[in-house]
């Protein structure tokens, strides 16, 4: 009975969403109208083509004018989340979004962009609307969380919880080490925008030393950068580093200069430097003129760079971690910071009663492939496909196979001048012992530039591994000798006396030509002893604290802090399994701290907020820096200014002194007494009696109320 009514409601909702899409297009037209005004898209039965509009006097066409003679089942991409699918399954007439939620989220983001344009001095668009005013950090946190809608938030930590008690700042200071820059990691969030983040950048951060009923802020400078972590120093401390503190650039706790003025927050200098500067306004003007600050859209760019096109329930092919020579079908179960938890679909290979085996890898990992890749390139595949365990919650969410466009394409390989052949010898990183570079042989040449490489000495083929010809894990003969790396020879040979010439003569084999290998070593920014966060590829669900032990061309030898050198691993400089310091805190992935008897615990600074009884300090309460004629200063804020601008006595407890000043302020601003009140016996002047009575009343309050 409710069918027609439900249909009408759905149609009305769709019409509203279509109106929002049209509003979004109008906003985009305002931004890019000059570009799109001379172009239209004509897509007929043939291929789509771009043509110029010859009718200059005609009204401005829409952004995309598309005409189809019949439905074309080609792949389209959602403009909000990046999900790919066929046009028929997408939402709205324009087919720009995969779902209603993405359409509405995109509309909300366009409104945020319009507000951002006004903050940058650009005229607002005609469709701009005012958003509900919420805290900056709340907005950024919600935006970043919304982009990870496919993530399993129940299994991932956030912020400081992801690092436990480990403090990167204290650890770096104790070790005296540097951290690799975010710009060294092409797959890391904000890598492309990291040139905007430099030392001496000015930001507004929470003033943790202020004892006031509400949060106040102060200006700080970035003294040192360590990945996503920044060591800050409040303005006024000059060269004094005793009060330096660490903060994450991805936490949402740093704001550009002017944020407090825009949001009505107070700027209060720390107590320790209050007396050092006589005129704070002039001091800040000299310090801030010509200085750089965070981009206004810094956190929006962070949220955009953390998008992941993979969704829970997608099918992929991934290397079997129990037998690296084959691949298995798997389903995406969790997405965290671009890292995927994959559950193998053929659950029959697991022992009964045991949990389904899984594997973690980055979405750009060479271990990950679209469904059908093995058969396409001729990969060895002895798997028997079976139906998944429908009772498992992961497999109840399976809805589609991943498409090839979601995966990172390997480097193009040209075969005109020769290519790898079966039986050629080379040096390769051992896939089951990543700290060793061994003598290896080309066992099979696949399609699309892929090779099956086997380590010499194992005859069963269980350690064959699929490498692309452009991989940096395969190396020409003599690479280890040239760079003073210990080569692991086949069984029966001593690495000290091993000779390539004798070995080739014994085996009657030849080596692969050196020009076939990709050994270019362009500047990458890594140096010895740099700190970073790295995946233990033998236990790929672990992200650990690591140190660059050696840099050899494009290869890095990583040492996991607290572990023996036997666990070191070779990785490429562009490996998606290495991350900047603070990456786990930004993405919410769990970080494994170094193993040791005295791990560096997090030093959380006490943040005195609200009413807390404190003892006297040797520093007066700081003054509040505000602009003259600020409309935000009401009577309550003027009272705070009065309390903060008058130094307190050093021998009286601070809370009682505040109450005494409050009593004086009330008595001086009290209306005159009535005649009946003036006839009462006076112990002194009216002001003195009022002050005495109020002060006595305050002193008579019980201690329980003071603690409250």
From TrEMBL:
Entries under Gene3D superfamilies matching the protein: 2.30.30.140, 3.30.60.160
InterPro entries cross-referenced by the UniProt entry: Mbt, PcG_chromatin_remod_factors, Znf_FCS, Znf_FCS_sf
PANTHER family in UniProt: LETHAL(3)MALIGNANT BRAIN TUMOR-LIKE PROTEIN 2 (PTHR12247:SF64), POLYCOMB GROUP PROTEIN (PTHR12247)
Main location as per UniProt: nucleus
Biased composition (Acidic residues): 8-30
Protein's recorded name: L3MBTL histone methyl-lysine binding protein 2
Recorded superkingdom: Eukaryota
GO CC terms of this entry: nucleus
Pfam families in alphabetical order: MBT, zf-FCS_1
Residues covered by the FCS-type domain: 69-104
Residue segments, region Disordered: 1-30, 42-61, 594-631, 664-708
GO molecular-function term, one example from the UniProt record: zinc ion binding
One Gene Ontology term from the biological process aspect of the record: negative regulation of DNA-templated transcription
Cell location: Nucleus
Keywords assigned: Chromatin regulator, Metal-binding, Nucleus, Repeat, Transcription, Transcription regulation, Zinc, Zinc-finger
Species lineage: Eukaryota, Metazoa, Chordata, Craniata, Vertebrata
Residue stretches of each MBT repeat: 166-270, 278-384, 389-490, 498-594
């Amino acid at each position: 009975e409710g069918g027609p009514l439900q249909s009408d409601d759905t149609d009305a909702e769709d019409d509203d969403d279509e109106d929002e899409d049209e509003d979004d297009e109008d906003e985009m037209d305002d931004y890019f109208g000059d570009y799109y005004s001379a172009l239209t898209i004509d897509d007929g039965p043939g291929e789509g083509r771009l043509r110029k509009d010859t009718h200059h006097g005609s009204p401005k066409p829409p952004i995309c004018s598309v005409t189809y003679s019949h439905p074309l089942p080609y792949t389209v991409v959602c403009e909000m989340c990046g999900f790919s699918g066929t046009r028929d399954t997408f939402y709205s007439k324009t087919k720009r979004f995969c779902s209603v939620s993405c359409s509405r989220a995109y509309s909300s983001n366009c409104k945020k962009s319009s507000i951002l344009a006004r903050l940058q001095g650009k005229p607002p668009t005609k469709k701009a609307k005012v958003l509900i005013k919420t805290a900056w950090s709340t907005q950024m946190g919600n935006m970043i969380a919304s982009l990870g809608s496919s993530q399993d938030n129940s299994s991932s930590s956030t912020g400081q919880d992801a690092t436990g008690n480990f403090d990167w700042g204290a650890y770096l200071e104790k070790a005296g080490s540097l951290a690799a820059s975010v710009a060294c990691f092409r797959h890391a969030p904000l890598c492309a925008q990291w040139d905007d983040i430099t030392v001496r950048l000015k930001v507004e951060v929470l003033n943790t030393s202020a004892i006031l009923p509400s949060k106040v802020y102060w200006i700080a400078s970035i003294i040192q950068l360590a990945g996503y972590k920044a060591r800050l120093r409040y303005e006024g401390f000059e060269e004094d580093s005793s009060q330096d503190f660490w903060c994450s650039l991805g936490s949402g706790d740093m704001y550009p200069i002017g944020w407090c003025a825009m949001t009505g927050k107070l700027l209060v200098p720390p107590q320790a430097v209050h007396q050092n500067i006589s005129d704070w306004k002039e001091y800040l003007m000299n310090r801030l003129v010509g200085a750089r600050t965070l981009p206004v859209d810094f956190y929006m760019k962070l949220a955009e760079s953390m998008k992941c096109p993979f969704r829970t329930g997608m099918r992929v092919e991934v290397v079997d971690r129990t037998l690296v020579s084959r691949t298995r079908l798997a389903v995406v179960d969790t997405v965290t910071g671009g890292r995927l938890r994959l559950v193998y679909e053929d659950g029959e290979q697991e022992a009964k009663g045991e949990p389904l085996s899984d594997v973690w890898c980055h979405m750009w990992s060479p271990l990950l492939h679209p469904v059908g890749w093995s058969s396409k390139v001729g990969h060895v595949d002895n798997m028997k496909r079976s139906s998944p365990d429908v009772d498992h919650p992961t497999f109840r969410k399976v809805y589609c196979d991943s498409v090839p466009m979601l995966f990172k394409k390997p480097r193009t390989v040209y075969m005109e001048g020769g290519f790898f052949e079966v039986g050629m010898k080379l040096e390769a990183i051992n896939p089951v012992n990543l700290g060793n570079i061994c003598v290896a042989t080309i066992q099979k040449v696949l399609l699309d530039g892929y090779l099956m490489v086997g380590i010499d000495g194992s005859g069963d083929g269980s350690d064959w591994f699929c490498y692309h010809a452009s991989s940096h894990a395969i190396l020409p003969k003599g690479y280890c000798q040239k760079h003073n790396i210990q080569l692991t020879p086949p069984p029966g040979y001593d690495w000290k006396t091993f000779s390539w010439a004798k070995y080739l003569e014994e085996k009657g084999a030849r080596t692969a030509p050196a020009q076939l290998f990709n050994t270019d070593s362009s500047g990458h920014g890594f140096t010895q002893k740099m700190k970073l966060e790295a995946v233990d590829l033998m236990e790929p669900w672990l992200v650990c604290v690591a140190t660059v032990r050696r840099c050899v061309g494009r290869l890095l030898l990583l040492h996991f802090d607290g572990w023996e050198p036997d666990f070191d691993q070779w990785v490429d400089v562009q490996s998606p399994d290495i991350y900047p310091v603070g990456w786990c805190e930004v993405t919410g992935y769990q970080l494994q701290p170094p193993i040791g008897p005295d791990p560096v615990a997090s030093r959380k600074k006490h943040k005195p907020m609200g009413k807390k009884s404190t003892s006297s300090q040797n520093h007066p309460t700081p003054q509040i820096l505000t602009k003259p004629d600020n409309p935000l200063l009401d009577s309550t804020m003027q009272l705070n200014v009065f309390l903060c601008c008058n130094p307190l006595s050093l021998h009286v407890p601070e809370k009682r002194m505040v109450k005494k000043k409050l009593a004086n302020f009330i008595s001086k601003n009290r209306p005159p007494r009535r005649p009946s009140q003036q006839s009462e016996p006076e112990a002194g002047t009216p002001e003195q009696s009022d002050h005495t009575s109020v002060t006595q009343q305050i002193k008579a309050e019980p201690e329980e109320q003071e603690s409250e």
